[in-house]
Amino acid sequence: MNNELNDNQLEKILENLAKEGKPDQKFQKALLKEVKSKYKKIYGHSSWIMKIFRFKLQLASSLALLTLTSTTLYAYNSNSIVTGDLLYPLKRSVETVEGYFADNEEEKSNYYSKMAERRTRELEHIEIESESYKNTIRETERMVEMAKTELNKVEKRRLPEIKIEIDRTPENTENNEEKINKTPIEKKTIRKLPETVNIENNNKIEFDSNSADNFKDINETSSKSIELKPEFGKLEESISIPITPEGKINITEQVETKADADDETTILRSRIQKVESDIKRLKEEPPKNFRTDSKVKTGR
Amino acid sequence: MFRGMPNYQQFEEYYNKHMPEIYGYVYLRIQHNKALTEDMVSEIFLKAVEKFEQFDETKGSFKAWIFQITKNYLIDYFRSNKNKGTSSLDEMENQLRDNHDTQKTAEQSIEKDLIKEAMKTLTEDKKELVALRYFAGYSFEEIAEITKDNANNIRVKTHRILQELKRKLIQIQ
Q1: Strand arrangement, sheet containing A161-166
Q2: Does A11 sit within 8 Å of B162, measured CB to CB?
């Protein structure tokens, strides 16, 4: 071999050598046959058959999904789907899911009102005085109560705020100086004045929550303070208002700020009231005859 | 997302295009044994059929994908042979005797044997580069894609390997 072999020559030799490393046609065809056989074994007998099969499968799945969606929508929107119907559980399931999305008092109240209205509409398709009819009325009432409870929570949050400044300093400071002259002035903010105040010895004092004057001149000497309890006064917390040695409570200032009425709350309240009145009317004066509508269900 | 069933026609196209390249590469890497190369290439392509569902054209070319399968296959092969007490170099001794060029001239045969002898002394990564460039017939750019390197680096490395081979040839003579 030439000692002065250049790069091109060497590359040529390598390329020639590489020609040995070319597969025989026979081997190439035999391997292709084997590959094809394995391919069919793994992925099916024919790719176009599989394509049709897959297309049909996709079509069937889409149709099933479409049917399910349409049925669900129909069941949800139809007032004539009532208790005892095949699709009623589907309807109620969708309603339950809808309820999961109500995450504050206002939305919950809205949801329960809506459910109450839906039950009321269902009543038109149920045989009057049947068990289903009574159950649906009970369910409607339950929804109304829940709607009211949630709405009350909303309204409570929006109640007028009343600030009361209680002056513990007795009117006659000279006579009572030793007892209470060091008592600091206490300021409390409460949501609403109580309608009833319990005094320690169980005496009850009625007063008008709009009039601060009723706090004055309470002739109760056996108690050192009036306890305003949350359950009576819808207070955020229990507060104690001391009574002066003369048996007086001094309220020096009363400021009331009214919260603006919320349109949505008002609408919600009126919706609940409407369902309430509808139910009340149906209970007091149920329709006298069975409906002739073919869709009316006999119930159980 | 479901990619769908692999297309056989596509696989056959890949096979026709890349099988000779893989064959050449394997042929050099296992020291010129035709029978063994055929067995190995068969196994590599049957393995590729099995895994073809996983092949994603958006992640790389078929060439790079099949080369990776081949490389992994050879690694397993060399590892298992090493455990058995043989190596690719041991085999080369045998392969050199397995010369099918009976019809070639004696001079050509000697040249090739000398080259084979010289290549025996190359490191595995250098042998791989020679296999890809001259036996699989890839361009520098294609080798760069397969080995995830820079085409210019590949060009320089190949040039150096050729110089090394030349020096070794002189030594052998």
Answers
A1: A186-190, A161-166, A251-257
A2: yes
- As for the ipTM of the complex, it is 0.73
Chain A residues with beta carbon closer than 8 angstroms to that of B38: 23, 27, 31
| Of A32 and A196, more confident | A32
Could you tell me the end-to-end alpha-carbon distance of chain B, in angstroms, rounded to an integer? Answer: 61
The rounded distance, in Å, linking the Cα atoms of B34 and B43 is 14
Domain count along chain B: 1
User: Closest by alpha carbon to B20, among B135, B110, B109, B114?
Assistant: B135
B111/A39 CB distance under 8 A: no
In a domain, residue B1? The reply is no
CATH of the domain at B152: 1.20.140
Gap from B72 CA to chain A (nearest CA, Å):
20
In a domain, B3, yes or no: no
The whole-angstrom distance between B83's CA and the closest CA on chain A is: 27
Tens digit of each residue's pLDDT (9 = 90 or more) over A94-151:
898 888 888 888 889 999 999 999 999 888 888 887 888 888 888 999 999 999 988 8
Cα B82 off chain centre by: 19
Task: Find chain A residues with C-beta within 8 A of B12's C-beta.
Answer: 32, 35-36
Predicted confidence (pLDDT) per residue in B95-108, tens digit? 434 444 444 455 55
**Beta-carbon separation of B5 and A51 below 8 A:** yes
Phi, psi dihedrals of residue B23, rounded to the nearest 5°? -60, -50
